[in-house]
Amino acid sequence: LQDIIPQPLLDQYLSMTDPARAQTVDTEIAKHCAYSLPGVALTLGRQNWHCLKDTYETLASDVQWKVRRTLAFSIHELAVILGDQLTAADLVPIFNGFLKDLDEVRIGVLKHLYDFLKLLHADKRREYLYQLQEFVVTDNSRNWRFRYELAEQLILILELYNPNDVYDYLRHIALTLCSDKVSEVRWISFKLVSFSILQKFYANSANALGLNFINELVVRFRHCSKWVGRQAFAFICQVGIFFLC
């Protein structure tokens, strides 16, 4: 029970997940319910999250990908409303499910990946280092905007991890994106490796890691047998100089 929203009105909202209403009222009523849920949660406050928890879990497992996609795009906003404890207990499992969903759903998580991860405790956040690699693979290889978004998010995510984690996990993803078939993805990835990652190493006095990374760039691109690799090295240097200036 709660005394913020008139109970009949809240009951009407919660009933929007009833499959019978999708057949008699509106076929997209569950999507509308998912779209409004962060606003309802904000109105009720985190102390009344128990009123919405079951409804949220029902929407998160809806057979319509558009409903799950709507939740994926707003899960970071709901995490701010609920706070770290409720997020870890109730949202993280759903977030993990979205990570393995269709690309149409995963893109919602990916676009706000930094916003969600920064709300988690460091130990929980570190668990996702192993899963970031999965974003490189998509259902449709021609979906290059997915990989472009990944590179943009990695630029932000770097601040959440220490230099050793960046070197052990994120550097592999960055180097893979630098060899992408689509030039737009390669360009944003050049910024990622030549400015963001190197800056991360040297700003944290991880000079040895920075030097190792530079040597790897030289071996992988400067001495590449294909001209596109050597061209990539020139662009990496160009982007790095541009941002440093």
From TrEMBL:
GO terms for cellular component: cytoplasm. InterPro entries: ARM-like, ARM-type_fold, PP2A_Regulatory_Subunit_A. One of its GO terms (molecular function) is protein phosphatase regulator activity. Keywords: Repeat. The keyword Repeat applies. It comes from the Eukaryota. This is PP4R1 phosphatase. It comes from Odontophorus gujanensis. The gene is Ppp4r1_1.
